[in-house]
Amino acid sequence: xxxxxxxxxxxxxxxxxxxxxxxxxxxxxxxxxxxxxxxxxxxxxxxxxxxxxxxxxxxxxxxxxxxxxxxxxxxxxxxxxxxxxxxxxxxxxxxxxxxxxxxxxxxxxxxxxxxxxxxxxxxx
Length: 124
Prior knowledge:
It is built from one helix and eight strands, in the order αββββββββ. It is an alpha+beta fold and 124 residues long.
């Protein structure tokens, strides 16, 4: 019986540690990111990616800086240090993978074809 009473606090500690890790990953992407998508047919494109928490889940949009067109995410899937989002564009549904590089930088791809880099935008 003593062994069970010693194991129980340890299990609780592990659960709280995992919950804290998950919360940190959820909030990493929150905010605005200046993104450059490289190698598109029309050339490199600058965009603004905006993430926020809605009802405890990531949501957001991407805005093409040249066209000023805001495209809300239709799906957001966060796993570890990677978020995969989908959004509708005039050329169809686009999938974008974003990977945490460090505290203020990320990398990724559009449709597993075009590379991108992003820098966290400083709040004004």
